[in-house]
């Protein structure tokens, strides 16, 4: 005769209240200072240079204009579709720190980094690479608007305003989208464990590559 099981087992969900003892009032505050048991340590004051965050912000705000006005940057971007992705800082040596402007060229699919000296209003160094920087807030908004204009997800009841994206790469060297600026967007109410929909957007061509709904069983 087969055994019969009950799920959950009897008493499985029963919760015992732990007795933590009496509440101490007033709070226990006369503990010994255990520091007296530690060996004395000789300390040496360290000199440091105070830095103004407002000055750093001012230099970062001026950096994009200086970078775009530089001859070498202008030649790289002439007639191209591009966007400033971010402005950070770069240390050239221990005592020299400059703003670095990261620009993405969507036509050539290259990342341009320009190190700027705001005091001299000059570009110190320019480098290009195929590395993909993290998606910017502007790019994420643009990708969401392309999905909205595509209509497939909105027509299926998806609030595309909930979209969050990250950069992905097509590793197939034979793919026409290899090296392109691809954003993987996920959509859905933030109180769900899994997203309700997805979209792959190619910002190099301003196209929605793929969009769809996740099976409801995964939510």
TrEMBL record:
Top-rank lineage group of the source organism: Bacteria
The name this protein goes by in its record: Uncharacterized protein
Native organism taxonomy: Bacteria, Bacillati, Actinomycetota, Actinomycetes, Mycobacteriales
